[in-house]
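User: Quick sanity check before I run a bigger batch. Here is a single chain. Can you write out its predicted 3D structure?
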Amino acid sequence: MPDRATILVVEDSDDHVLLLRHAFQKAGILNPIQVVSSGEDAIAYLGGSDRYSDWKMFPLPSIVLLDLKLPGVDGLHVLRWIRRQPSLKALRVAMLTSSDLGEEINAAYEAGVNVFLTKPVDLDKLVEMMRVFRAHWLEFAQAPHILRLTHTAGESQPS
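Assistant: Done. Predicted structure follows.
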C-alpha cells in the first residue's frame, strides 16, 4: 500500500480527533487525514456526493477509522452501507470507539468490520495502538484496489 494513502476518520468528538491527530504524529503516521463528524457525512464522502464531489480534494481513503456512536446515522449503519456498495465493499474499515461491549463488537464483525479497536484512555497507549496500526495496516497489509463509481456513466476513480 502506498505510504501516503488517505485515512478517513469518522469521529464526532473534536477532542478525540485532536488526540488522534496527536497520536498519529507521535506514531509516525504521515498519511493525509480526512475527518468527518457524522455518519451522513461519511456516506456522502465515500459516495463522492454533495460537498465531497471534488475527488481530488476528497480522495477515497485506503482505510476508514469509524466511530461506533455517532449522532444520527451511527457507525454500524455506515459500515453496513459500505458493505452494500459494490465498488466499496472491500474498503478496509477499522471500528475505533470507546465501546468494549461484547454485543457491539459482535455486531460490528457481523456487519463486516476488519478490526474493532477500543480507544484507550491513556494517551501513551493510544500512541502505541497507532504505532501497531501503522505497522500492520499502512506498511505491511496489502490494500484492495477500490474504485469510486460515478452516478452517471459508470466511470470510476482509483484510490
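Residues 151-159 have pLDDT under 50 and may be disordered.

User: Great, the batch can go ahead then.
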